[in-house]
Design goal:
This protein is of the alpha+beta class. The chain has helices at residues 3-11, 17-22, 40-50, 114-119, 134-147, 166-176, 204-212, 256-269, 276-281, 286-307, 341-354, and strands at residues 54-61, 65-72, 75-82, 84-87, 101-105, 108-112, 123-125, 152-159, 179-185, 190-203, 223-228, 233-239, 243-244, 250-252, 315-319, 333-334. It is globular and about 55 Å long.
Length: 355
Amino acid sequence: MTKETIENEIESMETEKEEEKTEEKTEEKTEKEVKTSKNRKENTKKREEEKMDTQIIGLDIGRGYVKGYSLYNDNEYTCLFKSVYGDGRNISLEDYKESPIYIEIDGAEYFVGSLSEKESMKCIRNAGDSKTSPVVRILITAALSEIAVSDNVSLVIGVPYKIFKKSTLKEIQKEYRDTTIVVKNKINNSVKTIKIESVNIFREADAALIFAMNNRINEDKPVGMVNVGFRTTELSYFDKGFKFNDKLSTTIESGNQNALKIVQKKLVDSGITKSLPEIDSSDDYDEYKELAYKLTSDDTNEIIEETWNNLDEMDIYVSGGTALNLELDEKYKKVENSQMATSIGLFEVGVKLEK
């Protein structure tokens, strides 16, 4: 993959549905030399030496979880927390088993992630595709509080296939580029002042595939990425030579939410009322969850077969947090570290853009 390839990919984004009907896509989008996690530090070191003050961060802001990844000065920084926040207050966190997130923004205190689920009086969840909503802005701030170690950052934010277009990029850049975030960590009383120097976007599933390909280009056969999220499943198709095929790529309304609703209905029939987040966080209801994820696995297998007819002629990768709970056809390759795959791939895109 080259810098020019990624820039062309971003430049050729669809602008409006009307333009999609009249404009032909003529640019070849060849992505080569995908970096592996094994050699990431070596390949990034030169860039970091040249531009030590700017930290590149890949952010995957999903409906279920926020995932962030960065490699800066030979050190890896990651965050993974639930896409939820709520009111915060001064409480003892000494016995809290997970890494709690308790921050202050513009004088307002927030619990974030699982701490919010347990202790906030009112929880706010990320329910939409927008990456500029007040909800997402707080989640991004929380992620930067966790992994930003430089005063200056460059962000690459993942977006769904259906909104990967110029208008989305302009909206996101208007919201975040050249802005300064001041956030206080209420647990250790540290304050970070972070300047967002640049912002770019990239398709979520494509970023996951960049991570999954391990420095290989599909010269012999097409490849597909199935990225299973909380509410949607994204399928991205690349012809030989890693050329994106828009016609054979799509987004399906199916994901972890479907499985949780099955469990929820079973519980209601048993006289138990639980919200989807409560079910998702609970270690109980294994029997119901096993059935639900079996059905979701079968459904995902059907979605893949219905979307792509030439399965025996292609390699198919599966990623996303929900994929961890699915048992799919063994011919599909489950991506290692699948929940973080998109954020790592987004970081790789950012590295290429900086060169």
